[in-house]
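hi support,

uploading two proteins for the ticket. first:
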Amino acid sequence: MKETGHDIGKAAVSYFTCGFNCAESVTKALCEELGMGRDDVVKMATPFGSGIAGKGHLCGAVTGAMISLGLCRGRVTLKEDRGSCNKVSGRFIDEFMTEFHSVSCRDIIGVDLQTDEGRKQQREHLRYEKCYPVVKFAAERMYSLIRSSR
């Protein structure tokens, strides 16, 4: 039986709980569910965790969702249209912003991951309080948008 959008969120959070970063978790869950479960795609997401290399920039869950979308709807030739991919990515960002008010990891979790204290807070409680809902939302929402845009 195929997973539903709700189950894909659980899968993404499960990967996150096991130690994959936010970008890897979202990418892994989406690619597996959409029939693109290739390890090299998850490897591409590795440097994007915690706002790109732990710098707190673009949220890794957003990046993981975009990597998966590109794999599904991206183009490989200049003759292909990128409009449908851009439409889905724009809608995803709008909905993500409505839910979390930012696409910046630092803004979402409220600490600087470049400091010892910020990393400690993220490990001890922000990972659960802030990151789990973000990872779940990104996987579920992108899955729904990809499925509805076919």
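and the second one:
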Amino acid sequence: MKISKDMVVNDCIKLYPKTIGVFTQFKIDSCCGGAVSIEAASRRDGAGLDALLATLEEAALK
């Protein structure tokens, strides 16, 4: 499964546990704020969506 902007942050972490470090790196609240899409979280927390998705994909492949 490919990580997309529509995937929920918590679902991404469940499927790809190594991505939690990426969310931390991009200052995405994956604890209390993890029930929203990656796109919504990036907008909310001021992270660049394209860079975030690319880094998540890279982490998920490891």
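thanks. also noticed: The radius of gyration is 10 Å.
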